[in-house]
Amino acid sequence: MSDRTRQPTSHERMSGRPWDASYQDGPAPWDAGQRRAAQDRDADARERGSGLARDSQAKLSMIRREQAVAYRLHVNHLVDRLPTGSHEQAAYVGLQDTAPRDALLGLHARMAGCVPSDWEHPTLIQTYSPRAAVYVLPVRDFGVFTLGRLPLDADAVRRIDLLADRLCARLDGGERRGGMGHELREACASGRIAVRWDTSSLWAREVPRPAIDVAAARVELCRRHVRCFGPTTPKAFSWWSGLSPADARTVWDLLADELVEVDFDGVAGWILRADEESLRSATSPRGVRLLVASDLRLFGRDHGGRFVGPGLRELTPVADSFHPNGLLVDGRIVGAWGRKGGRVSVVLAEKLGAAQYEAVEAEVASMPVRDPQLSIS
Fold it and tell me: Using only C-alpha atoms, what is the Rg of the chain?
């Protein structure tokens, strides 16, 4: 494991909750080592230099942060809810499930008619995925989020396959609870292991390896990242996917013909060429949503406040360990919220109007949790 990677505390190990490595700036564990570090430095140097093949004479489209955030909220279905039953579309880029039932609440923010059991819908599956966190994913796209984050180094892939062989032998065709630690997180990239986290215990089971070509899976993972988090960069893709900077850049280059560079508040960023008009025409978001912490990345949590990572820049001064989530009102984060069971506590950073207050009440009342109750301070 990289010496830049924090170990889970004893409390985290005993809690039964899957450990979230999403704060890490380093590559996935199997990319560590001097040889890969040298490759990563080379990739960073290429990105700083002329390797991006940027035409300095061409006038780049200028994208403001507010415009980018509006586009991201629209494309992630956080402005207009999807119809009831649109589970796969809502989970298009994965729903992180680190805190208890975050994925369910993320689904509720995107899809109408969400019910408490929807995190177990037959079209969805759980496994460790980007950033070594548990995600809820579309079953049909399981290979994109597992095989798509395999390293390019053949020896590293063999190590993951051997880990998967060993764990699948222990599973012996059944579902096993806990006791597999860090090896389980690594082995999930093989596409042969799914998990089920019920907020108190983590279970693992063997599943058939997806038939998708590994190279195609990597490119599709990159494509989804750019679609949902653009404007973005190879560095942000590396952070989000868990691929090393060198591997992420190689995959990025395979998608180059589909990308267009923009001037993102004075910094180079990239979007899908097919999404350029959607980005330009994105209207100012209206309405209220209770966003889980992982969705706050859409507002830019890196140090410059533009990209999804690395970093955990605070978006509101009222956020704390019990209120890590964001209250979205008309495209802006105006408060923070937390939940314990059905008790939802909202802390405001600015005053709400009567209609906005009622909209917050309606959002909480529709939450797919038992007996939701709201308190606002």
Answer: 20
- The total of other beta-carbon atoms located within 10 Å of residue 41's CB is 12
Q: Average pLDDT, stretch 31-60?
A: 48
CB 330 within 8 A of CB 339: no
Q: Does a cis peptide bond (omega within 30 degrees of 0) precede residue 210?
A: no
Give the Cα separation of 129 and 137 in Å (integer). Answer: 9
pLDDT at 58: 54
Is this prediction's pTM over 0.90? no
Q: Give backbone dihedrals phi and psi of 304, rounded to 5 degrees, phi first.
A: -90, -5
Residues in the chain, how many? Answer: 377
Q: Where are the alpha helices (DSSP H) in the chain?
A: 10-15, 34-48, 65-75, 87-90, 102-110, 142-146, 154-171, 181-187, 214-229, 234-241, 245-254, 276-281, 354-365
Instruction: State the Cα–Cα distance between residues 276 and 263, nearest whole angstrom.
Output: 13
| 111 to 61, 88, 201, 296: CA distances (angstroms) | 32, 10, 27, 18
Nearest to 304 by CA among 373, 202, 231: 231
Name the percent of the chain lying above pLDDT 90: 75
Question: What are the φ and ψ backbone dihedral angles of 294, each rounded to 5 degrees?
Answer: -65, -30
Show the tokens assigned to 189. Answer: 């990239």
Question: What's the rounded mean pLDDT across residues 316-338?
Answer: 95
CB-CB contact of 169 with 175 (8 Å): no
- Contact between 217 and 151 (Cβ < 8 Å): no
Handedness of CA 47, 53, 57, 60 (dihedral sign): negative
In three-state secondary structure terms, 121 is coil
Calpha distance 243→181 (Å, rounded): 20
**Other C-beta atoms within 10 Å of 165: how many?**
13
